[in-house]
């Protein structure tokens, strides 16, 4: 059975809190996994594994994080354009910590708990949630 | 240039008798035993289910970055805690240090037995996956958290001690079975004498309370007979420092690292002759056998009493591995005699 949007959100919040050893009250939809919750590269591996197990789907490497920046490559103008779109969608995010013209290496800092929830909602609504 | 000498300035201990040196000593002094049927897993199918388990250790309180706990198995948690205690005991200055090395000996990891069994149980044919490597790889490995490997890599014990305690000097994990803990102390002392580090956290850490260890011991016949082995767990870490550096910072010197041997035989016996033995058997009667951490733990218990003469710690394991180490009293008086 497909989980409801509020179930997805609750499960993601709890998975992220567990993986990054953070108290639940510190983990919000607008928390940056890197800047607010201290995630490092191995934590992303861990979180993807936990999401795959919890939601019964395979998540291609990096797909979850790159949705908003698909196909932009290293072009700073293209990145800036997508960033403007993202800003409009995410007013609660701490944009003051992100450089005005971010490079590709800044992009993981934009990944929030909400990014993960959005990705999963999209995947699960596509009916891709066939448990292994 | 003055000859560099390695001295002991701090002690840290985690055993089934207590989660600190003080707690271990008081339980030992009260004559209580910490061995009981294993609770960490169901050991009832084995010839003996007795184990010495560490209880009431607040590892989180000792971790600078608590997120790393998910990467640490029991032996690594014990090592981090015992190492932190040794630094504290020595009043070693806090903060990152390029001159602080780490050399911990361990006989191995529990390989995440619980996680492995859970992954196996999800296989289409668990029995086949349990005996066939290819089937195992297909069935189990895909179902394991990718961090599994990072938890069980042998060198992780010393790596996490370094990460949590910001010890940025040389780093090694010695894995010569039950002899590894003493060998690591000898290695750390050598680094100090050679000038590779001014201070080294050295000792042993192990956990034998898991099905793989029990199965191996049973196969070797160690769990039966008149005095069956009681597999236990824990860590014993000493802070070694270069003598002049230690004196300059006003550190209390508990003893000086003397000769050591990394093999059984006449040299080992000669080393120990005339020295008081560390209370290894007494520790084993009350706590079980801490494997690579056992001889270092006995050494710590001897050092905390204060040395009036040399003390010898000896480790000998079931594969014939052995190591022995002599610690001399701090004044250097017995140095030439030893």
Key structural traits:
heterodimer, A: 132 residues, 46% helix, disordered C terminus, B: 338 residues, alpha/beta, nine-stranded mixed β-sheet, two-stranded antiparallel ribbon, 37% helix
Itemize the secondary structure elements and their pairings.
The complex is a heterodimer of chains A (132) and B (338).
Chain A: H1 5-19, H2 41-55, H3 63-66, H4 76-89, H5 113-125
Helix pairs in contact in A: 1-2, 1-5
Chain B: E1 6-14, H1 21-29, E2 35-37, E3 50-52, H2 59-62, H3 74-89, E4 100-105, H4 113-121, H5 126-131, H6 133-140, H7 147-152, H8 156-165, E5 171-174, H9 180-194, E6 199-207, H10 211-219, E7 233-242, H11 243-248, E8 255-261, H12 266-272, E9 276-277, H13 280-287, H14 294-304, E10 311-316, E11 322-328
Parallel strand pairs in B: 4-5, 4-6, 9-10
Antiparallel strand pairs in B: 1-7, 1-8, 2-3, 6-7, 8-11, 10-11
Describe the structure in your own words.
- The complex is a heterodimer of chains A (132) and B (338).
- Chain A contains 5 helices and no strands.
- Chain A has helices at 5-19, 41-55, 63-66, 76-89, 113-125.
- Residues 128-132 of chain A have low confidence and may be disordered.
- Chain B is an alpha/beta fold and 338 residues long.
- In chain B, strands 5-4-6-7-1-8-11-10-9 form a 9-stranded mixed β-sheet, sandwiched between helices. Chain B has a two-stranded antiparallel ribbon with strand order 2-3.
- Chain B is globular and about 65 Å long.
- In chain B, strand 10 (311-316) and strand 11 form a beta hairpin.
- The A-B interface holds A 19-21, 38, 42-43, 45-46, 49-50 and B 65-67, 69-71, 145-147, 150.
Question: What's this, in brief?
Answer:
Chain A is 46% helix and 0% strand.
What is the beta-strand fraction of chain B?
15-25%
Largest interface, with Cβ-Cβ < 8 Å? Answer: A-B, 10 and 10 residues
- What's the number of helices of chain A? 5
Would you tell me the structural class of the helices and strands of chain A? mainly alpha
Low-confidence stretches of chain B: 333-338
List the quaternary state of the chains. Answer: heterodimer
Mean pLDDT of chain A: 86
Mean pLDDT of chain B: 93
